[in-house]
Amino acid sequence: MNTIISKNQRYLPHTLDTRYHAVKTYRSGYSIAFVIRRYKISKASLMR
To answer: If you average pLDDT over every residue of the chain, what do you get?
Structure first.
């Protein structure tokens, strides 16, 4: 996967699919720590 990151872009945005599954996993009762490790996202991204 070759992705070009511009100088203004600070991180790679997560796909909609990743966001959906992370929130679904969190709402089903898993801890925040588990979800952010599994989907490799930050806590701020999950809470957003």
So the answer is: 82
